[in-house]
Automatic annotation (TrEMBL):
Gene Ontology molecular functions: catalytic activity, acting on RNA; pseudouridine synthase activity; RNA binding
Documented EC number(s): 5.4.99.-
NCBIfam families linked to this entry: pseudouridine synthase
Enzyme class: isomerase
Family according to the record: Belongs to the pseudouridine synthase RsuA family.
Protein name listed in UniProt: Pseudouridine synthase
Pfam families: PseudoU_synth_2
């Protein structure tokens, strides 16, 4: 199992597909075996996993595994104790109430790099910083949570996934580092690798996700050959079935191809 950590810069898309207006993962990662596990929005920054392990994405993002993801969040306004308590209890969003989060007010850290472009500044409105940890992975969840309690997010940096800490790794925006999974307790219960699932499959409630690209594989990981009766065009001449008749029919002499001229 290979795991590479990337400090994703602002305004970079979490995809390898080329884009005319924005940078993508392909500008920082050139290993074709790596896939993204745990995406970040274009306007978010920080820690991203890339791995060749097919089941790691679901293992990290599924709430039942309690892999907390920690974010450093700059919000518009001086966040109150009441707002922090709401985040800790759970916030009612349009797709349901969130699980309780860990939320504390912090000072702007000294290690933080400058964002390009910088966050807008308004002299009449202060900003504050919050460290939020969640074990869910809803779309733009942290931004929606802070907006719901009255303090919209201005800047969001993911600093941790489980015990992997971007600050301890010392990565600057755009830098990558391969880590050894055996050194981290987060990966001791990771399930066996599975084939990557088709993104064209729409996940249904209660389902298991996308359909595997290779549905059946041998023990060595190679795809199994399809079983069943071969088609007639796949058979050798001696294997093709003979037509059964009662002796009164004549062989067909009609040409099935193009007429000869």
């Amino acid at each position: 199992m290979k795991i590479v950590i990337l400090n994703k810069p602002y305004d970079v898309l979490s995809q390898f597909r080329p884009d005319e207006k924005h940078q993508t993962m392909a500008d920082f990662i050139d290993d074709p075996e790596l896939r993204i596990a745990g995406r970040l929005d274009m306007d978010s920054e920080g820690l991203m996993f890339l791995t060749d392990h097919g089941g790691l994405n679901q293992f990290i993002t599924h709430p039942s595994n309690k892999k907390f993801k920690t974010y450093l969040v700059q919000v518009d306004g001086d966040i109150t104790d009441e707002a922090l308590e709401q985040l800790r209890k759970g916030v009612e969003l349009n797709d349901g109430i969130t699980l309780p989060a860990k939320a504390i007010k912090v000072s702007e850290p000294e290690w933080l790099w400058e964002r390009v472009p910088p966050v807008r500044f308004r002299a009449s409105v202060p900003t504050s910083w919050v460290e939020i940890s969640i074990c869910e992975g809803r779309n733009r969840q942290v931004r929606r949570m802070t907006a719901t309690v009255g303090f919209p997010t201005l800047r969001l940096i993911r600093t941790k996934i489980g015990s992997i800490d971007l600050v301890q790794l010392g990565l600057q925006p755009g830098e990558t580092k391969e880590i050894e999974p055996l050194l981290y307790p987060d990966f001791k219960d990771v399930p066996a690798a599975e084939p990557y699932r088709s993104r064209s499959y729409v996940k249904k409630p209660g389902g298991t996700g996308g359909k595997p690209i290779n549905k059946k594989v041998n023990k060595d990981g190679t795809p199994k050959k399809k079983s069943g009766t071969p088609r007639i065009w796949q058979m050798e001449d001696g294997e093709k079935p003979r037509r059964k008749t009662n002796g009164t029919t004549r062989p067909s002499t009609k040409s099935r191809g193009r007429r000869t001229r």
